[in-house]
Design goal:
mainly alpha; 14 helices; 2 strands; globular
Length: 351
């Protein structure tokens, strides 16, 4: 698989540059850009996995989620610059749904086929459940409800205030888990990951790969954004579907692959940290940052989702909380999460 991604990168990056300069068909360029970003994301995933082995499951999962979300953040910033607010909000909705239902579902399912029962840190799961419910149910629903009785200026002010609170709380949550309460809620069977295996790449090489891959993704993402409108019109895809499904899957490809691999290796602490940790990072950091960044562009982005997006995210959070709060997983729970993702995917496609 690594050879395939290497080949895709060696072919995809030059084709992306040549195609954009020679103005190839937007459909062909859209496919090339998406496949190349997925291939580059695989290298980011391998690099963060190497760093995870050295740093341990919590920091490793955080690194994986951060660099996985870097791709989506880059795509979203260029989309904001182009005024595609709907696609940005839809892609962030898709990221929440994709991480909680698709990534976690695939991880539970693939790992559950190999192991009848897998366990992960139940204290982390419960801690994350509270943050998930706060970020999605409180911070996302409240602006929609209050905005019904506000003008655009007040709605934007409310969005800015909530965004700042979310960023502060997210940083406080990291400080809580990694500093003040590090090791306090240690899982009984949890072992340091670096004792079990050697990293694929050295620390220096992993950081270098992350740096180069991120630059390449930024270049391709800028061109990818300009194909959205044409692709949507040609294939009959709505802006909502492109954001929720296509951009979210492409933007989160690195974490998708890494979480499933970790689950297959029975490293569920890292797999769950990637899936849920990435969701929290999107909801409490990436989205608020984008709201603040939009202030520097011509079109500002208030923290307002459609009711379909809100209900889908709230349903995903509640389902994930119920399934993960016991600190154990199996293949049927994974199948349940994936089934929920498919149902929502069909709904967004038909809108």
């Amino acid at each position: 698989m690594n050879r395939i991604f290497m080949l895709m990168t060696l072919i995809g990056v030059p084709l992306s540059v040549i195609g954009s300069l020679m103005h190839w068909s937007n459909i062909i360029l859209f496919i090339i850009y998406c496949l190349t970003i997925v291939a580059l994301a695989s290298f980011m995933g391998r690099a963060t996995e190497s760093l995870a082995i050295v740093a341990g499951p919590r920091i490793g999962g955080l690194l994986n989620a951060t660099f996985g979300n870097a791709v989506e953040l880059i795509i979203s910033i260029f989309s904001l610059k182009a005024g595609l607010i709907g696609i940005v909000l839809a892609s962030l909705t898709g990221s929440v749904l994709g991480n909680l239902l698709l990534v976690a579902g695939l991880s539970f399912f693939i790992g559950g086929i190999k192991f009848k029962r897998q366990s992960f840190n139940v204290y982390d799961a419960r801690h994350n459940s509270g943050l998930l419910m706060f970020a999605v149910i409180i911070a996302f629903v409240i602006p929609e409800v209050f905005s019904m009785h506000m003008n655009e200026t007040k709605t934007l002010s409310l969005s800015i205030g909530i965004s700042i609170i979310l960023i502060i709380l997210y940083l406080a949550a990291l400080f809580f888990k990694l500093v003040t309460h590090r090791g306090v809620y240690q899982h009984g069977n949890e072992k340091p990951v670096h004792e079990e295996e050697e990293p694929e790449w050295s620390k220096g090489k992993a950081i270098a790969v992350l740096f180069v891959a991120t630059i390449a993704v930024a270049y391709i993402s800028e061109h990818l954004v300009h194909t959205f409108e044409y692709v949507g019109e040609t294939l009959g895809w709505s802006e909502l579907f492109i954001g929720v499904i296509i951009v979210a899957i492409v933007g989160n490809a690195a974490e998708h692959a890494s979480a499933v691999v970790m689950a297959f290796k029975n490293k569920m602490d890292i797999a769950v940290e990637i899936a849920i940790g990435s969701t929290l990072q999107v909801a409490m950091f990436v989205l608020p940052v984008l709201v603040l960044v939009s202030l520097f562009f011509e079109t500002t982005m208030p923290l307002l989702f459609s009711w379909q997006e809100l209900i889908a995210m709230v349903s995903s959070v509640l389902l994930m909380v119920v399934i993960s709060n016991d600190g154990e997983s199996n293949w049927f729970e994974g199948l349940t999460l994936m089934a929920a993702y498919l149902i929502m995917g069909i709904g967004f496609y038909l809108l």
